[in-house]
């Protein structure tokens, strides 16, 4: 199955939110391996934040849909300037995980950033406790930089932490 990502539009907001929630939060997310349900409660993405990402003039949200129209994968890209793009909001539906969809979507996202913004590097942040996710990105050529960023405690737009030791690890991949 070869699926091509499309630019997300406002009409995609509800599907984008449902996809991201299914991949990261709540009991349904436990069907896949990307769940954050043991680390965070609350929302992973709300309608307002999704719409802001779609409207961001420095970025895009790519969305992959199945033949039946259901949302299967997403990624947010932002042009940070200086040849660097940001990779975030990466979500694959639990029903589509383990089938190579994530790797294909990452490749498409990296190609988009290189083609549209002449990006030479891709940067991302991952909750450092998500060692299996960090390992996935490392297998795809991303490297830990040794930098960390604080988790935004108190800002429920990022979820409600179940632990007080969360932080983001910074990873970078050279695209060219």
What is this entry, summarized?
The chain is of the alpha+beta class and 176 residues long. It is 27% helix and 32% strand. It comes from Brevibacterium daeguense.
Largest sheet: 7 strands, mixed
> How widely separated are the two ends?
28 Å
Give Rg in angstroms.
15 Å
Rough shape? globular
Strand order of the largest sheet: 1-3-4-5-6-9-7
| Count of DSSP strands | 9
CATH-wise, what's the superfamily?
Gcn5-related N-acetyltransferase (GNAT)
Please describe what this structure looks like.
With 176 residues, the protein is an alpha+beta fold. It has a single domain, classed as Gcn5-related N-acetyltransferase (GNAT) (Aminopeptidase, 3-Layer(aba) Sandwich), CATH 3.40.630.30. The chain is built from four helices and nine strands, in the order E-H-E-H-E-E-E-H-E-H-E-E-E. The strands form two sheets. Strands 1-3-4-5-6-9-7 form a seven-stranded mixed sheet, with helices on both faces. A two-stranded antiparallel ribbon has the order 2-8. Strand 3 and strand 4 (71-81) form a beta hairpin. Helix 1 (13-24) crosses helix 2. The longest helix is centred in the middle third of the chain and has 17 residues, at 101-117. It is globular, with a radius of gyration of 15 Å. It comes from Brevibacterium daeguense. Pfam families: Acetyltransf_1 (PF00583). Residues 1-167 form the N-acetyltransferase domain.
List the helices and strands and how they pair.
Elements: E1 6-7, H1 13-24, E2 40-41, H2 47-55, E3 59-65, E4 71-81, E5 84-92, H3 101-117, E6 121-127, H4 131-139, E7 143-150, E8 160-161, E9 167-174
Parallel strand pairs: 5-6
Antiparallel strand pairs: 1-3, 2-8, 3-4, 4-5, 6-9, 7-9
Helix pairs in contact: 1-2
């Amino acid at each position: 199955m070869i699926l091509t990502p499309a630019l997300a539009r406002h009409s995609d907001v509800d599907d984008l939110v449902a996809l991201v929630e299914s991949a990261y939060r709540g009991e349904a997310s436990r069907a896949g391996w990307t769940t954050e349900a043991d680390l965070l409660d609350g929302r992973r993405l709300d309608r307002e934040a999704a719409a802001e990402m779609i409207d961001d003039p420095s970025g895009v949200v790519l969305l992959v849909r199945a033949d039946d129209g259901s949302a299967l994968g997403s990624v947010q890209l932002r042009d940070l300037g200086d040849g660097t793009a940001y990779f975030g909001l990466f979500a694959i539906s639990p029903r589509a995980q383990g089938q190579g969809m994530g790797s294909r979507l990452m490749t498409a996202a990296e190609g988009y950033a290189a083609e549209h913004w002449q990006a030479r590097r891709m940067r991302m942040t991952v909750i450092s406790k998500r060692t299996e996710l960090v390992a996935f990105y490392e297998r795809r050529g991303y490297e830990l930089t040794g930098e960390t960023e604080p988790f935004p405690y108190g800002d429920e737009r990022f979820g409600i932490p179940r632990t007080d030791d969360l932080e983001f690890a910074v990873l970078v991949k050279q695209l060219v």
